[in-house]
From TrEMBL:
It comes from the Bacteria. GO terms for molecular function: poly-beta-1,6-N-acetyl-D-glucosamine transmembrane transporter activity. It comes from Candidatus Propionivibrio dominans. Residues 1-21 form the signal peptide. This is Poly-beta-1,6 N-acetyl-D-glucosamine export porin PgaA.
């Protein structure tokens, strides 16, 4: 509702400080617009025809943001001043709009920003069509950059900035910070870094620019520089605010970012120590809680991470980013209904929030079809149980989710080996369905091929918490059979069961047992145990080891027409080093070199050494595709004779 002159007079008298005495000129020079408005309105109360007082009241009301009330004064001013004050009105609307965008939810959060952008839309269109702007228009265009960035329109903000640069319009530091953030949103961190550094030359203590530079360095993979920068900036901030002595929230935020710098650099144990110490001091701080969730997810504990996010939402229930993060974690936990509900909630709060958009992409990938291919090729000696050459292709094609919990799939397994110039083939094609919900995953398949009978396969997996995983399978006609047996017309059924205990991302113990019942009467029983440990983790390098042992027994022994020792056992130790050669957001390239040494004992033939070397490449080709391939050479004894085998492998995952 528009205020009357008397209401404006009362408002100005309320806002003005009693001590603000002086002439109108002095009050204007001091920027005391409330007191000045009161002076001019008091004059107009006595003499409504005073043109000077009316003009002065209009200017003061505009400076105070009382735009609708100022319009009622109908002051006669020139077009230039009218344009300048209209620009002030738009700028103030943008300032309030940025606050709304951070504090409100739903469509209303962008009402002021959209209004401000509408006010300068025609000017922007004319400028980008070639019109040269005057000084006031340049100011409005720069203000528009800020509004576009706050409205989550980074591409438009960058386009306008680059258009201004092209006509030599200087963009001030405060707007450069918004442009840098827009470049960062567009995944151009190097450009963002340049602009943030320019801002910090002008205003070294700018909190947002310092934090922005940190994230620009992180996202351009300059992790050591990022950590050094945020550590230095956090240490430079006072522990307490100067005015009231209260704890300095900016320092706290910078220190939490410093904790997370360790996570980004894969220094997870160090990050855990820091975050736990911080939570011990302020257990209910939302930023520290969010960092704790990131830590637990990095450690491979999604259930704990989801609980952290749930607690954070208890204190900040209208945060769209937290809802989006929780939706993604619930998706990984196979809590489909709750995951969808959280995403809907995040969208209702702010569908254009970057984290909500990220969650949208994650759900889009989940809803696609999936192709998984695991292939291998080997070359050895004629006496090798694998043959002189062999290959295998194991491929699954999954449908999109059906009724959330189901996926149908087609499975093809093809294997072939050359034994003394004669090829033996084993090809099975199956169809099946997979059911996934919560802690459970169950699959069933029926398959057939060649002259063999129809087979059925079932698997079961149960993961009750972040540490334990139990699994089992049963096959009436298994693919896990030597092709020497297939050549002799022998098939087998097989059952297996296993348990994994994963302490965190760097330590895992596994135990698996299996039993295969061959059609020639042979019963093969096998037990294998492994211990995986990652000893070194840095932004570029990982070093890890696997210690393993297995043993098997075969009831038919050497009477079988395939490699079938009555008893054998092996122990091995693998050391692997992995290098992240290159990464750009969802795209990366890694190299891995693994060396294995061990010992193999076979009943009737004694002990022999085993060695292997493998070299792999792994490509992440966006979030929808990954490709891994490698070559290797192994040496091990069979029936007392040491034999070599060269091999190559390929694994593909494609969501489409």
């Amino acid at each position: 509702m528009r205020l009357s002159f008397r209401d404006l007079l009362l408002l100005s008298c309320t806002l003005a400080c009693p001590a603000s005495a002086g002439t109108p000129e002095q009050l204007a020079a001091d920027g005391d617009w409330a007191a000045l408005l009161g002076v001019y309105l008091a004059t107009l109360e006595k003499n409504p025809q005073d043109a000077k007082a009316r003009l002065g009241a209009w200017r003061a009301a505009m400076r105070l943001g009382l735009f609708e009330q100022a319009a009622g004064l109908e002051a006669g001013i020139d077009a230039r001043e009218q344009a300048a004050l209209e620009g002030d009105r738009i700028a103030l609307n943008i300032r309030y709009g940025r606050i709304d965008a951070r504090t409100l939810t739903g469509p209303e959060r962008y009402h002021r920003l959209d209004s401000a952008l509408s006010s300068s839309a025609a000017l922007a269109a004319a400028f980008q069509s070639g019109r040269q702007p005057d000084a006031e228009e340049r100011r409005r265009l720069i203000d528009r950059i800020s509004a576009l960035a706050a409205r989550n329109r980074p591409a438009d903000a960058v386009a306008l900035y680059e258009a201004l640069l092209a006509v030599d319009v200087e963009v001030p530091a405060w707007a450069l910070s918004d442009v840098a953030g827009a470049y960062l949103s567009l995944r151009q961190p190097r450009q963002a870094e340049v602009l943030y550094r320019r801002v910090l030359v002008a205003t070294p203590d700018d909190f947002d620019a310092n934090l922005g530079l940190f994230y620009a360095l992180v996202e351009s993979e300059q992790l050591a520089l990022a950590q050094a920068h945020i550590d230095r900036f956090a240490a430079s901030l006072p522990v307490r605010r100067h005015l009231d002595g209260q704890p300095n929230g900016e320092r706290w935020s910078a220190e939490v970012a410093s904790d997370q710098a360790r996570l980004y650099a894969d220094r997870i144990a160090e990050a855990q120590r820091r975050i736990e110490q911080r939570l011990a001091v302020t257990p209910f701080n939302s930023e520290a809680r969010s960092a704790e969730a990131s830590l637990h997810l990095a450690r491979g504990w999604p259930r704990q991470g989801e609980a952290d996010l749930r607690r954070a939402l208890g204190s900040d229930p209208r945060n769209p980013g937290l809802h989006a993060d929780r939706a993604e974690v619930l998706l990984s936990l196979q809590d489909w209904d709750q995951a969808r509900a959280e995403l809907v909630r995040a969208r209702s709060l702010d569908a254009e929030n970057p984290r909500v958009r990220q969650a949208d992409r994650t759900f889009d990938l989940h809803d696609r079809r999936e192709l998984y291919v695991d292939a291998g090729y080997g070359v050895g000696q004629n006496s090798n149980p694998y043959g002189s050459s062999d290959w295998v292709v194991d491929a699954w094609l999954y449908s999109s989710p059906l009724a959330e919990r189901w996926r149908a799939f087609i499975h093809n397994y093809s294997a072939s080996a050359d034994f003394n110039g004669a090829w033996t083939n084993w090809v099975r094609t199956g169809v099946g369905a997979e059911w996934r919900s919560g802690n459970w995953r169950v699959t069933g398949e029926t398959n057939g091929g060649g002259a063999e009978k129809v087979g059925v396969l079932g698997t079961l997996r149960w993961q009750p918490d972040d540490y334990w995983k139990l699994y089992a399978s049963a096959e009436s006609l298994t693919n896990n059979i030597p092709l020497q047996a297939v050549r002799a017309g022998v098939t087998a059924s097989r059952i297996s069961a296993g348990v994994d205990w994963q302490a965190h991302e760097s330590r895992k113990l596994a135990l698996v047992a299996s039993s295969a019942d061959f059609s020639d009467g042979n019963l093969r029983q096998n037990v294998m145990a492994t211990w995986f440990e990652r000893w070194l983790s840095t932004p570029r390098w990982n070093f890890e080891t696997t210690l393993g042992a297995d043993t098997s027994r075969n009831s038919l022994g050497y009477a079988a027409p395939y490699f079938n020792p009555p008893e054998d056992r092996s122990q091995w130790f693998t050391a692997a080093v992995e290098n992240l050669a290159w990464r750009d957001y969802d795209y990366s390239f890694r190299q891995r070199l693994a060396l294995t040494v061990g010992n193999y004992w076979q009943s009737g033939f004694g002990n022999g050494d085993t060695e292997a070397i493998e070299y792999h490449h792994r490509w992440e080709l966006g979030r929808a595709m990954s490709l891994r391939y490698g070559i290797g050479r192994s040496l091990r004894p069979y029936d007392g004779e040491r034999e070599a085998r060269n091999f190559a492998t390929l694994t593909l995952l494609w969501r489409f």
